[in-house]
Amino acid sequence: MAGVVAAFLLTLPLINLVAPIVATGLMVHVFEQVRRHGGVPEAAGT
């Protein structure tokens, strides 16, 4: 899901200038969550 958010940000004309920074922060957040909990976080909808 995090990749979908990052891809969506890249479709918006002016937002795509800061999207790589936001996407990097989001992926670091996901990585740290996985590292702390020892597994892949479960999707909210499943």
Structure description:
By secondary structure, the chain is mainly α. It has one domain (2-37). It has helices spanning 2-9, 19-37. α1 (2-9) packs antiparallel against α2. The protein starts with a helix and ends in a 9-residue tail after the last helix. 0% of the residues are buried. The model has no long low-confidence stretch (mean pLDDT 79).
Number of strands: 0
Secondary structure tally, helices: 2
Main sheet characteristics: none
Radius of gyration from CA coordinates: 12 Å
Distance between the termini: 12 Å
Provide mean pLDDT, rounded: 79
- Uncertain segments: none
Task: State which percent range the strand residues make up.
Answer: under 5%
Structural class: mainly alpha
Q: What is the total domain count?
A: 1
Fraction of residues in helix: 55-70%
What is the global morphology? elongated
Describe the structure using short key phrases:
single chain, 46 residues, mainly alpha, 2 helices, elongated
Quick take:
With 46 residues, the protein is mainly α. It has helices at residues 2-9, 19-37. The protein is built from 2 helices and no strands.
Layout of strands and helices, then pairs:
Elements: H1 2-9, H2 19-37
Helix pairs in contact: 1-2
